[in-house]
């Protein structure tokens, strides 16, 4: 395995390697002076920025623009590929933060970059590969299952607590008290900041969590119980209502995208 510390002092504009983190590892908030593309091959990870939380599973990828503050928490053992792109490279500065399913073409382009030595010459072939990779990232649909954070620090504290323990069944009155607000103020501000009600947002947290757990091997019944549902049927109905697909489809194809 190669790691960031192995990169030469002046790497090519597009460079990458494969890496592994053990389950439970937390890579605290940090930034890179390059854009970062991570493609996850095995395991599950939560990546938080200041504004969003992403739960990623095998076959999915995340593009982070240069200087994006982020944190990664490995929910399981994690095998992934990472590409670092100089922000001055053609098209890199135009791509926003984006979670997506890595197509076979994107995976092939990443493999070609990783196969090269860190100190390769950025010849016409590698320029073409790099440009095509960024063009494909811009074209692929964004996956919808990301979670937004509110800007209000009291609401953010509540949201972070729920994301950390999505099966927590405490009611809205409890969370309003935790935020130091009256229930009516809490619900109004939450709707105003998030564009949906508290209950709907928490359901979304649970199904995003569920998708990751199911794709990495947990049974649907076990996941439903852990996340506070009375039975697998009610959980499956909520999952389908939210994402338009049954949770069992993640068994058949773990990299199936849930798209906006």
Automatic annotation (TrEMBL):
The keyword Nuclease does not apply. InterPro entries: AraC-bd (IPR003313), Homeodomain-like_sf (IPR009057), HTH_AraC (IPR018060), RmlC-like_jellyroll (IPR014710), RmlC_Cupin_sf (IPR011051), Tscrpt_reg_AraC-type_HTH (IPR020449). Gene3D superfamilies: Homeodomain-like, Jelly Rolls. PROSITE patterns: HTH_ARAC_FAMILY_2. The keyword Transcription regulation applies. Signal peptide: none annotated. Residues 156-253 form the HTH araC/xylS-type domain. Keywords: Activator, DNA-binding, Transcription, Transcription regulation. This is AraC family transcriptional regulator. It comes from Gluconobacter frateurii NRIC 0228.
């Amino acid at each position: 395995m190669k790691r960031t510390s192995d990169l030469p002092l002046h790497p090519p504009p597009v460079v990458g390697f494969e890496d592994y983190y053990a389950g439970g590892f937390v890579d605290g908030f940090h930034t890179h002076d390059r854009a970062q593309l991570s493609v996850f091959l095995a395991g599950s990870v939560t990546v938080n920025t200041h504004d969003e939380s992403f739960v990623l599973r095998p076959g999915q990828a995340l593009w982070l623009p240069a200087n994006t503050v982020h944190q990664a928490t490995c929910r399981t053992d994690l095998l992934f590929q990472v590409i670092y792109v100089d922000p001055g490279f053609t098209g890199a500065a135009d791509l926003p933060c984006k979670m997506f399913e890595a197509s076979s073409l994107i995976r092939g382009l990443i493999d070609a970059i990783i196969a090269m030595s860190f100190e390769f010459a950025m010849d016409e072939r590698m320029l073409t590969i790099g440009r095509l990779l960024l063009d494909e990232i811009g074209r692929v649909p964004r996956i919808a299952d990301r979670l937004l954070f509110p800007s209000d620090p009291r609401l953010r504290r509540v949201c972070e607590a729920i994301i950390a323990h999505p099966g927590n069944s405490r009611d809205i009155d409890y969370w309003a008290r935790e935020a130091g607000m009256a229930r009516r103020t809490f619900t109004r501000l939450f709707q105003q900041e998030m564009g949906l009600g508290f209950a709907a947002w928490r359901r979304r947290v649970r199904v995003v969590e569920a998708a990751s757990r199911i794709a990495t091997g947990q049974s649907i019944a076990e996941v439903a119980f852990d996340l506070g549902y009375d039975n697998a049927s009610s959980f499956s109905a909520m999952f389908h209502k939210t994402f338009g697909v049954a949770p069992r489809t993640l068994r058949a194809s773990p990299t199936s995208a849930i798209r906006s």
